[in-house]
Amino acid sequence: MLPSRLRERLRGLVGDAGIVDRREALLVYECDGYTLERAVPDLVVLPATPEEVAAVLRVLAEERIAFVPRGAGTGLSGGTLPVEAPVMVCTSRLQKIESIDLANRRVVAQAGVVNLWVTRAVAAAGLLYAPDPSSQTACTIGGNVAENSGGPHTLKYGVTTNHVLGVELVLPSGEVVSLGGAVEERVGYDLTGLVVGAEGTFGLVTRATLRLTRAPEAHRTFLAVFDSVEDASEAVSDIIAGGIVPAALEMMDGLILRAVEDAFHAGLPVDAGAVLLVELDGPAAGLDPQAAQVVALCTRRRAREVRVAADEAERALLWKARKRAFGAVGRLAPNYCTQDGVVPRTRVPDILRAISAAAERHRLRIGNVFHAGDGNIHPIILFDERDEDEVRRVLAAGREILEACIALGGSVTGEHGIGVEKIAQMPLLFSPSDLLAMTSLRAVFDPEGRSNPHKLLPDAKVCVESRAPRRQAAM
Amino acid sequence: MAESEAIDGVVPRSVVEPATIEEVAAAIRDAAERDLAVVPRGLGGHLDVGGPPRRADMLLSMRSVSRIVDHQAADMTVRVEAGCPLSRLASTLAGAGQWLPLDPPGSEATTVGGLLATNLAGPLRASQGTARDLLIGLTVVAHDGALVSGGGRVVKNVAGYDMPKMHVGALGTLGVIVEATFKVRPRPALEAAIAMACASPEEAGDLALALRDACEPLWLEIVGPDPAGSSGDLGFGESWSVVAGAGGVTEEVRDALARYAETGGARVLETEVPEAAELRARIADRTLHPLGATIRAATLPTRVGAFLGKLSRSAATRGVSCRVHAHAANGVVRARLDGGESLGALVADVRAEVENEGGNLVVERAPPGVKRTLAAWPGIWGDPGPGLGLMKRIKSTFDPADRLSPGRFVC
Ligand SMILES: Cc1cc2nc3c(=O)[nH]c(=O)nc-3n(C[C@H](O)[C@H](O)[C@H](O)COP(=O)(O)OP(=O)(O)OC[C@H]3O[C@@H](n4cnc5c(N)ncnc54)[C@H](O)[C@@H]3O)c2cc1C
Q1: Is this complex scored with an ipTM above 0.85?
Q2: Which of A58, A147, A221, B319 lies at a CB distance of 3.0 to 4.6 Å from A417, suitable for a disulfide?
């Protein structure tokens, strides 16, 4: 338990509105989008300004207390799970877009700003913020920076790190450092590039300078319908190998299609084996020749139909169906979890076969809705958490799928992060000297290991294997 | 050792040329045991970038560690050893209709390792980004000879810290880059460019942004006038020129050029310059081999015109000849400054101008004598900003004995 003197000191800094310490209220913070493990923090602090964040972290530094940064809690790898960290520092009150510079295409946003708000703020000027996680109506810029988040359109436009020019970081010592900035060259090491994707283990990001992108002048969006997942994934390989860079190239399999159609009535073909959602964008002049090429490639792989979105409303409906697919799956089973492996793009057919083999072996239902153009899979495993045996099978299948990704030359996470979930796979991807370099880098920013401890890096203290399944992560 | 092996005037005591990554590791282990300072070299095209080394006992030539290890054309990735020249990589990729769209100054004399260590970029950055945006995996030999990798072989990957970024632009001060994996892109079917002339740098700055807004360019350069008495390198003569490049399928390129022509109006010089890609390379090479110094300034895109004006006036006042170009959409200006007595004062003056507005200015390259003078004042790097403390800690963590290119970088 935290000493009450500390609670009162923190309350003094952020006021009553910035403190959550009632048991029922704390329950909200027991997990993020990764629900297989839960732990309630002792105290949640909600600073209202970057300066308050620094003040809070200084007090925690004096008292040597570990903390977990948290944005909207939509993370999918358990990054916000408190593990030997009693205090959670949540950015949800840091909601200001501090400056917008349209001519230079820059925005400075506080960490708690929701991803989509940035695009909304600049849309009238024909600009957007390119990284578009499917959770973009809820997830925060701080969370995006921490996870180096992607999204459907990052195939063409790049992920978060390609669009963050600078960050303000409050180190675990409470010291505030401003890294990078509005200009495109820096002097010295690429510290901003290191902070992006550090999963909150370097301290708390309070502000970020983001690069804006011109909104595409035109789109060609189509839905290619296939009888089998194999044909759809061969078409993905052909499109990439054909030298086309679609803005997005997403796949949904039959199980997902039916769930999404039930939820949104987007007119999706519920009897299909899989669909590809393909979007080309840019100036209208170049789009039609490329669109014809995509259609031809899909047809060659036996697409039974290629539907073109006739207008913006139809396009919006297709994207709504895609971006809310995870939510729709909620109707199929009490619980689901998703994996985030990556394979070289030509190996998508192989990994999909491995996924269905794992589903069969472990008697599980697994749907697939994913960023096929990047080779970034998202098998969604359905289960009921009250069934202990099924939970064990879910974890085993997840592990096997990730190990299959590694065997195919890929990685265990394309955008959701390692968090607590995938720590056990880190030694399969990296050698002891690779991991040592990462541990040393962490110590540069956080020598005492107090910012989001026991995440991302395997450490001797917490034996990962023994924790799963359903370990008690709390202290 | 021969003078020709000198780095900023420092002649190394030995030159080692390993043939494999394992031999690089062995050489570094050996250097560690004997406390030798190591400076890696690719083709030597950019050894004049950075601060003068405090010591250079072992020059590590990477020329023979140069295999293209694995080009997966259908996955659009390539893994390549650090000593591979960009030109050789380019021809392999071209065979599959692909490119690594990075066009640093002196591209012909650049290896993959040199490109990453210097983080040089050229006109294509307007649409393609810089090395950090295309690098997906990296292996370095650490100060103690250990092989350390980060990232991987897939185009999207957030497993672990983004260690490759730490080495991009680090001038070999945190490890010796031995192998890199990139995502590559389809090479545009067609590349073309249009050139326009403006009366002043300020007008050129405004026109460039208007072109950017008319249609996203493949590249977008402002080219300053040929310095008086110099042989014109690009043939644009006395005016401030704006050159916009377009790439893609024919329809796309035609459409872009038409929009640029309309935006430029009477200022259009050539509606389609011949050999656009070659012109792009010549613009990138414009500031190489300075007699004085080549500087690189970063400012906001809207400030480029004013900065170019200030720079060229300050140079003229001081009798310094100035050959300049700007990556207009990126706010990055490169200038080769030759002659004149007061180069240091000029650098200090224009640096203050950009730093005041949140930008930065570095002395990118200079002959040894000039560089030592500038290193003493006003400095090669200017103000690295509030991150300097963390940078020093990174350096002492990854190179505790200060033996990897000591003195070459900000810390
Ligand atoms: C339905 C759904 C769809 C999704 N789709 C995508 C997708 O398409 N692409 C994708 O990449 N992700 C996706 N995600 C995952 C998730 O939304 C992203 O990882 C997102 O960036 C998390 O943001 P958040 O604000 O919710 O962060 P949180 O979940 O609160 O935190 C995530 C991590 O970031 C750290 N953190 C948060 N804020 C800060 C800060 N200010 N400073 C330092 N560390 C911080 C936390 O400690 C934690 O480790 C999806 C999630 C859901 C639920």
Answers
A1: yes
A2: A147
